[in-house]
Predict the structure.
Amino acid sequence: AAAAMVARALWALLAALRAGWCLLPQSGYLHPDEFFQAPEVMAGDILNLQVYYPWEFLSSSPCRTVVFPLMTSGVTYWVIKSLQQLDVCSSCINSYTLLVSPRLLFTVFSFLLDYSVYRLAPFWGADPWKALVLLAGSYVTLVFYTRTFTNTLEGLLFALLMVLVSSRKSSGSSAEPTSSSLIGVITTAGFFNRPTFLAFALMPLLYWASLIVDSQKSIKTLINHFLKFILCACFTASVFITADTFYFTSVSLDDLYSTNKSRLIDVIVQLHDKMVVTPFNFLSYNLNPHNLALHGSHPRVTHFTVNGVMLFGILHILAIGAGFKMLKRCVHQLMLVRWCHHRPPGLLVHSKSTPTLLLFYFVPLAFLSLFSHQEPRFLIPLILPLVLLSASPNRAVKWKLLIVLFNLLGALLFGCLHQGGLIPCLLHLERLIHSPASSSHPRQYTLLFAHTYMPPRSLLNIKKTDVHVEVIDMAGAGEETLCQAVEQRASNFTCSDCHIFIVIPGTIRATVTKCSVSFKNETLIFPHLSMEDPPQIPVLSSGNWRSQLGLYILELNRDH
């Protein structure tokens, strides 16, 4: 009882940390997709801000559904826009609210994971509070599940699917599945969010199907379950296709409600001819090895050997050990069947929980490993079966100290350090651009970013009608190209109210000093760790370590 009380208090503390750190906010920048798969697009559509639309959301190449961005970032931006229009607050729309409001919604949604673990733990033979502490203390939950990734939504839908397929009677036996309709809706929604959701959904769906077959004697009832699943899946798909088609073909509701019959027929024909099915476009693009190579190619074992360890640490290694033991036991049973002609036991329904949970963990891992482009965030939905595997009530969680240190290091690295200066930099520049001095006397700003992740322009809070701010993303440009761009801007430095800022990590600060320009102001934002331009260990050991772990905002000297 005392251990349970401690676990409850620890979970509450970690839950408060999750919410508080979101509001602080977290400075780490994990991957451009956390902005460019939802908030950046919705800021342009709903708030009419200057943004960069990624290729997936262009009408010429629609590969992402707009439904989930509208339901998440779109809703939060609509709320703050309405509050400002109603004069509830005069400046509801600013860089802080643009950053935090979508993240806060995802942080609230992340507690669906906690609910799912609490519901699932008794069914799968895990200790609920031990599993909740493992979940809430993982840096994957603290950092990744509070960010606006489609992978985050994928993890939440996977959790809901596992809850729906895991039902038990009061007697302890598996209950007759009754959620066929909801399972169809969630499976289809997950597929439209990310087609890779099918890899995660495969084992839960097979488990659900085996429960139905095992529990039903009537073929009519069996068909009824699968018919509900298919009908609801088709209905959900039609909703997503309709919404995406409207969005990407720019057909307005006024056109549909047109009293002109010929115009209405033209619109219907246009919608039919230009029907947008984003998952198929996504698969068509990603099944092409050449396209995947543009985003980076990795060995097929990267998920197993690197990404799993990077996300889950010792828990992933222990799961691999348990998987080999299960495989050895299965081979042994098959040999006994062959020699003794015994019928093998059912694996999904009649076996213990551990083998089934291992399949829930490793089958998606294996399917995702078939693709050459492998990023750690693709695996974050697997935290659910992993914590259930690791929270057996019959033994204390081993490696406690290692688990704590690993997650502290992961939270520090990805929540604070990794590209950690870019977001504070944008918040600083937004305040500068919208300062009273700039408002009374309009100034021209040129913001040049080099060797950083792609800056989300929406955080600068610049309306599309404003033309006084120019954002240039030089990505990982070489020294010569970077100097040419800086010198070209310097040569065109004619107006008295023009300001040119160069944003670069400290590790390439020396490169810019070689250009034929000078700077009058420099702001150092600490910390900032660029893994693409990492600091050298000897330099870190010197007195210059703060500069190497910082992001510089350099203002060009007009007089020079």
Observations:
- The first helix runs from residue 2 to 23.
